[in-house]
Amino acid sequence: MKDSKNLVIGMLCAVLCIMAVAYAAFTTTLNINGSANISSNWSVIIPASDGISCTTQAAAGGSEEGLSASGTADGGTSATFTMSFVQPGDSATCTVKIKNAGTLNAKVSDVQITGNDATGAIRFSVQGIDNTKKLAAAGEMTFTVTGTYDASTSTQPGAGDKTKSLTVTPIFVQDMDAGA
Does residue 91 surpass a pLDDT of 90? Predict the structure, then answer.
């Protein structure tokens, strides 16, 4: 009986020691000292000087006189287009260059388009930019904006309504996929 009492006391002492060591291990504070520097740069832009080029096409048998297209950018990610048409069948196309002057890969998360009058005789379309497009660091991409004076429209715009404007703003976010 005395041996079993000593055995129980010894086992309790051993359990108490194990618990003390386990408690000490779990409550130990780990201090990590150090510093980190990030040297990346975010700069996705439509260049103000050479980012947009436009061409016009007169309707079959029509004249280029009065037909015009221009695009402007302020060095940010928005571009505004103004197109003037003369007769049904006229069209204009502007090609827009986007530069990733930064060190981070980018991708399109959204495209905001304002001023698109889809119900009128003059219509715009934007091609070549969507949320699957990726833009590598130091890379370039292009998209096009086309304006057309619908040749089959039954509702003709007034003389003052043959000039329309559109603003396109692609929204870029960082592309975490290294295979951009």
Answer: yes
pTM of the model: 0.74
Indicate the residue type of 34: G
Where are the strands (E) in the chain, listed by range?
Answer: 44-45, 52-57, 68-73, 79-84, 91-100, 106-114, 122-127, 134-135, 140-149, 163-174
For the record, the structure tokens of 13 come out as 């002492």
Complete edge-to-edge strand list for the sheet that includes strand 79-84: 68-73, 79-84, 163-174, 106-114, 134-135
Distant-in-sequence, close-in-space partners of 39: CB < 8 Å, separation ≥ 6: 103
Parallel/antiparallel/unpaired status of strands 122-127 and 140-149 = antiparallel
* Element spanning 100, H or E: strand 91-100
Greater model confidence, 178 or 17: 17
